[in-house]
């Protein structure tokens, strides 16, 4: 069984967030005021909330975070949200139509409090709840991370190993990835994978397209490949 977790190890250089994105989403802005009815208002959502995609939610949140200077804090909040909502039981609770909205709102408030989310992130969860879009939180997390990485020139590297690596080892890996990619920032995620036997692998690049394999499993596969002998045909001897 594999476990993915974010390592606290990062390698970064001071840089101002870039103002451009390669791909912009539909114009959806997030603002959280409350009208007399208690519903979030302000005319900031120009289309029906349930129709907005995960990409649009993520873009709106990243745009808000950039404008308020909270990109880093919001990324930290997103990681906390990812951990909570990675549990299928949590998603099932919020998508269960038999549970009263008031009860769901109470749980959202408890999650925000226990996770120490900043107010705008807590309100963002409230918007998702009001719009019946809690189910797309995993997709929103992925899309927000993509926007964050582009805005901050950050490379994400997934390090797989049999046992948890020490912080200094992860720091060296982060520095190596930074040297290979030229990224100003490197974030390390760790994955426990017993099938590697020993050693580790590093995946980075778009969609993990680049791999550095330092595992014993890889070495054993290469040894096995080198030991393969060609088929030998013996001539038939007359009886």
TrEMBL record:
Q: Which UniProt keywords apply?
A: ATP synthesis, Hydrogen ion transport, Ion transport, Membrane, Transport
Q: From the Swiss-Prot or TrEMBL record, what is one GO molecular function term?
A: proton-transporting ATP synthase activity, rotational mechanism
Q: Main subcellular localization, coarse class?
A: membrane
Q: Does the keyword Nucleotide-binding apply?
A: no
Q: Is Transport among the key words of this record?
A: yes
* GO terms for cellular component: membrane
Compartments, as annotated in UniProt? Membrane
Q: Which family does the record assign? A: Belongs to the ATPase delta chain family.
**What is the name listed in the Swiss-Prot or TrEMBL entry for this protein?**
ATP synthase delta chain
Source organism per entry reads Carex littledalei
């Amino acid at each position: 069984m594999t476990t993915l977790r974010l390592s606290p190890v990062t390698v970064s250089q001071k840089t101002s967030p870039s103002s451009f994105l390669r791909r912009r989403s539909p114009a959806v802005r997030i603002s959280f005021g409350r009208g007399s009815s208690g519903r979030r208002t302000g005319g900031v959502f120009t289309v029906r909330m349930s129709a907005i995609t995960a990409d649009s939610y993520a873009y709106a949140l990243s745009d808000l975070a950039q404008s308020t200077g909270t990109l880093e804090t919001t990324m930290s909040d997103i990681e906390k949200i990812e951990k909570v909502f990675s549990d299928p039981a949590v998603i099932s609770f919020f998508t269960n139509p038999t549970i009263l909205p008031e009860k769901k709102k109470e749980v959202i408030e408890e999650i925000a409090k226990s996770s120490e989310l900043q107010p705008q992130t807590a309100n963002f969860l409230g918007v998702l709840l009001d719009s019946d879009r809690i189910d797309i939180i995993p997709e929103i997390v992925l899309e927000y991370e993509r926007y964050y990485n582009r805005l901050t020139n950050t490379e994400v590297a997934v390090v797989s190993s049999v046992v948890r690596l020490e912080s200094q080892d992860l720091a060296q890996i982060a520095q190596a990835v930074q040297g290979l990619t030229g990224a100003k920032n490197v974030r390390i995620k760790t994955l426990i994978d017993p099938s590697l036997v020993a050693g580790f692998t590093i995946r980075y690049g778009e969609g993990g397209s680049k791999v550095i394999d330092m595992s014993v499993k890889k070495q054993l596969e290469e040894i096995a490949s080198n030991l393969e002998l060609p088929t030998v045909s013996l001539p038939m001897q007359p009886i």
